[in-house]
Amino acid sequence: MATGSAIEWTEATWNPSTGCTKISPGCKNCYAEKLSKRLKAMGVKKYKNNFEFTEHPDDIELPLKWKKSKKIFVNSMSDLFHEKSRMEFIASCFHTMIQADWHTYQVLTKRSHIMAEFSNYFQTYFGDVMPPHIWMGVSVENEDHVWRIDELRKVKCHTRFISFEPLIGPVGKINLKSIDWAIIGGESGYKFRDVEEKWILDIIKQCKKQNVSVFFKQWGGIRPKSRGRTIQNRIYNEYPKIKKLKNFLKDIEFDEKLFAQKCVEKNQKIKRPLTI
Q1: Which runs of consecutive H residues, i.e. helices, occur in 138-231?
Q2: Within 10 A of 95 (CB to CB), how many other CB atoms are there?
Q3: pLDDT tier at 274, thresholds 50, 70, 90
Q4: Sign of the dihedral through C-alpha 114, 120, 125, 128
Q5: In sequence order, which residues have a C-beta less than 8 Å from that of residue 240 and are 6 or more positions away?
Q6: Cα separation of 26 and 17, whole Å?
Q7: Residue pLDDT, tens place only, 101-148
Q8: Is 239 in contact with 217 (CB distance < 8 Å)?
Q9: 22 - beta bridge partners?
Q10: Which residues contact residue 175 at a Cβ distance below 8 angstroms, ignoring those fewer than 6 apart?
Q11: Which of 84, 230, 235, 251 is most buried (CB neighbours < 10 A)?
Q12: What is the per-residue pLDDT for 270?
């Protein structure tokens, strides 16, 4: 876990898994892929497999050791809902999030259908939806991927957000019902694709009309901070309003093998290996 982060909308990162696979245009210039290669060259053991998806069971309980409350971006170097990620491994990560509830967790994916599927298993095992301090989000880079927002609404949770980053095209008219927060940002890196002001302003306008909090992260450029964060003489630093509920899920005993068995019993098609 990194105890600090250069990502403006979070305070720390936690990577119980690393590596990923490109599945849409927003993945083209993936910063995590480039960073993984650099970390491997530096001899960091966690990245010995470079950008191949890898689970790291030894890192699952790291947030429990971090006593100061933080906003934690879960898997800045991967996608927790990758096709090769085992449902019981994901559940172990969520169990840590439930136990270390003094933190806020920001879980972001491009695999919205797997996130929604997992939330069904979560509710079956724990008997409730994901608590408010666990924010569930999807990435939407252009109009072709707005469908992920509909999938996000299927996720059984209290807090939902969208990351319109890297924004590489207009998104058109969007339905933000049951969405609490929107991050907007242009792409950065040497091969960055320009973002247009009208795309950003259109999203902000729709968020304001539908009562969604807005965080404008960056214009992008060669470096993330190359062109700043100001748009029309304003900086958007908003965060979602979170419900305050007692976390009764902390009292539920968790077992990986039992969770895997519950997944099978639910009689849903699971394409990833399960440890039973």
Answers
A1: 147-153, 197-209
A2: 23
A3: very low
A4: positive
A5: 135, 159, 161, 180, 181, 213
A6: 20
A7: 999 999 999 999 999 999 999 999 999 999 999 999 999 999 999 999
A8: no
A9: none
A10: 149, 150
A11: 84
A12: 45
Written as one letter, the residue type at 263 is C
Q: Is the peptide bond before 25 cis (omega within 30 degrees of 0)?
A: no
Distances (CA, A) of 128 to 123, 160, 209, 241: 5, 16, 31, 20
The 8-class DSSP code of residue 195 comes to P
- pLDDT of 276 strictly over 90: no
Alpha helices, DSSP H, located in 55-179: 62-65, 87-99, 112-126, 147-153
Contact 21, 32 (CB under 8 A): no
Contact 40, 51 (CB under 8 A): no
**135 strand-pairing partners:** 106, 159
Residue 5 neighbours by CB distance under 10 Å: 16
Q: Which two tokens stand for residue 13?
A: 């990162």
Pairwise CA distance, residues 222 & 186, whole Å: 11
- CB of 215 within 8 A of CB of 182? yes
Q: For 105, list phi and psi in degrees, rounded to 5.
A: -110, 130
Supply the DSSP symbol for 131.
Answer: E
**Helix (H), strand (E) at residue 125:** helix 112-126
Is 39 strand, coil or helix?
helix
Smallest CA-to-CA distance from 16 within 97, 111, 83, 70 is with 97
- CA dihedral defined by 6, 10, 13, 19, rounded to 10 degrees? -80
